[in-house]
Amino acid sequence: MVRFVNLTLAGITQGAVFAAVALALVLIWRATRVVNFAQGGMLMFTTFLAWTVVHDGGSYWLALGVALASGLVIGAVAERVLVRPVEGGPPLNAVIVTLGLYVLLQAAAGMIWGDTPHSYPPAFTIKGLSAGGTRLLLSPFDLFVIGAVALVMAALTVLFVRTGLGLKLRAAAFAPEIARLQGVRVGRMLTLGWALAALVGSLAGVLIAPSVFVGPSQFDAMLVFGFTAAVIGGLDSPAGAVAGGLLLGCALSYVSGYISSDLVTFGALAALITVLMVRPNGLFAARTGRRV
């Protein structure tokens, strides 16, 4: 029983990390209708900037602020300079641009900071909590990660459902021509969507860094699992991204703990295929078309 509880807690913690990446992917999809494969490179680069602050003697919170601010800038610049010229073309063009941006950021990080992974300090202790004399696989930092992801999910849900800005972002993504006729500055909304998605991705990078270290290719697996979680939950649903991340995290934890850690990647693929066969649009996707 203790083993099951620990595997579940480990899965929830790992799933929260997947959900953080999935939220960034969901945000940019809802705001721009683009699947941003450069998200992993963007969060990696901003996390390197945060690591530089910590390495030079800055606090964890200052480094987090630097990561978030740099994410806003990188996201906005990427949309204005790289994505904007191809937005009117076939959707595949934007996807190819994001792949190119990912390669560029990964190469730049390697030239600036090197290929050796660097450790990143957590905000709180990673020592597991105790319950009834039993050490649990849940630390204060894990609780911080889970709380931060829950807060971001709530904020994004309120943004898209309860605010005029969220309505403008959705309108610019779903029907840009109609949105322009209604006075929406579509270009600004798309730039804002990219900037906000990069900000959420930067937060995800800082939350992930203590467990995977910081290196040019250290976040690749997290991007794959985050994308899987986003697809499982439904690319249009922040709540679905979190639920997908938690479901995937727990599933992989059980596979690793009860079967073999070598089958973790296969388990993620099996979960993705199963969900796509049952609900191709994701578990939390709307059954009917959405109205802007």
Automatic annotation (TrEMBL):
GO molecular function list: transmembrane transporter activity
InterPro entries in the cross-refs: ABC_transp_permease, BCAA_transport_permease
Mark the transmembrane ranges.
6-27, 34-54, 60-82, 94-114, 143-161, 190-213, 266-286
User: Predominant location of this chain?
Assistant: membrane
Q: Which keywords does this Swiss-Prot/TrEMBL entry list?
A: Amino-acid transport, Cell membrane, Membrane, Transmembrane, Transmembrane helix, Transport
One GO CC annotation, please?
Answer: plasma membrane
Gene Ontology BP term (one):
amino acid transport
Where in or outside the cell? Cell membrane
The protein's superkingdom reads Bacteria
| Pfam families the record matches | BPD_transp_2
Family the UniProt entry places it in: Belongs to the binding-protein-dependent transport system permease family. LivHM subfamily.
What is this protein identified as? Branched-chain amino acid ABC transporter permease
* Species name: Actinomadura montaniterrae
Tell me the lineage of the source organism. Answer: Bacteria, Bacillati, Actinomycetota, Actinomycetes, Streptosporangiales
